[in-house]
Amino acid sequence: MSEAIKDEALATGAAPSASQGAALTLDNVSKNFGTFAAVKGVSIDVRPGEFVTFLGPSGSGKTTSLNMIAGFETPSAGDIRLDDRSLVTLPISRRNIGMVFQGYALFPHMSVEDNIGYPLKQRKVGRAERQRRVTEVLDKVNLEEFRKRMPAQLSGGQRQRVALARAIAYQPPLLLMDEPLSALDKGLRERLQHEIRSIHQDLGTTVVYVTHDQDEALALSDRIVVFNEGRTEQTGTPAELYAHPDNLFVAKFLGESLLLEGEVARDGGGSTVFRTAAFQIPVENPRALDGRVRLMVRPEKIGMADADGGADGVPSGHARVPARVESSTYLGHTSRYAVTVGDAGGGIVRIANDDPTGDAAGRNVSLTWAVTDAILLPDTPESSQQPGE
């Protein structure tokens, strides 16, 4: 089904409703394509008015899940409910769901205002009310002066604004967005992220947003659902997922980090330590993990000094390990250092550039962090990704 046909299907049928977010539930939903299981028993509850992002790599099942909500795919098992009304057997045209596609899916033969007004016309909204709503949403997306232009006369960012305006013109209780900003440059993506967030807060519509971009997910979401190989790994607020990932996959996918391999043990005084063949450091262990583990520290939590500058002892409540800088990248306000910590592993450190010193590759350094900033994770292998969505 082409994106234009998809959008026409979404634009027909249901009567207009007040823009109040609906509750969305995915209850043990699965989707098989032949012998390939694209989605495996996914259960998600989205609260009314919430902005939830499905985040994951290609092939993780996030887009397939979105397509089942929209009605472009039918679940092999499980139920999908909007305000306790099952959508599984409901035609696309009766779901009253707005959708914004990556490829815009605008009608090329229609002007901006006609594109936006099309779903309203299909819903039998009168001409005067239709014009009022078109004007209202054009104002929201800052495109009033472009209402008579054709899609070919617009930039990529402007076309995406038109697609967003068309999706919200009929005030759907649920808005689905499938990687809508992925084709835009970084600066424009960031501006449109701000606009999308502002429009969501203004309308109160429930939003389910799909992306593989971790920064986009962190910037936009009330909560994030991390997908991997057709399953959900963890759901939480951006701060929860970034600071307290449940496992190695979430830790590595959602942001950079220093990751070390070792084991949890007890020192001579009975305190919990993280131990490798070369060193041991104090840790907190709220999950009561034992045996082999991974220790994770986010880059901005780490301090770095010359190796000989760390010989005077460790501040109370801090850990210190020896490391080597493998490469450094100057990024303006910060520098990004790739480091290794002997055989224990390595990762990324970011240091503010108060006094840039140029390329630090090859330097021996000491890394320090507060014990409370280190997270212990189960030492489970990362699963391989499957191609396609």
Automatic annotation (TrEMBL):
Signal sequence coordinates: none
Keywords linked to the UniProt accession: ATP-binding, Nucleotide-binding, Transport
Residues covered by the ABC transporter domain: 24-254
Alphabetized SMART domains for the sequence: AAA
Pfam families documented for this protein: ABC_tran, TOBE_2
InterPro entries from the UniProt entry: AAA+_ATPase, ABC_SmlMolc_Importer, ABC_transporter-like_ATP-bd, ABC_transporter-like_CS, Mo/tungstate-bd_C_term_dom, P-loop_NTPase, Transp-assoc_OB_typ2
Annotated PROSITE patterns: ABC_TRANSPORTER_1 (PS00211), ABC_TRANSPORTER_2 (PS50893)
Top-level lineage group: Bacteria
Gene Ontology molecular function, alphabetical: ATP binding
Name by which UniProt lists this protein: ABC transporter ATP-binding protein
Organism this protein belongs to: Saxibacter everestensis
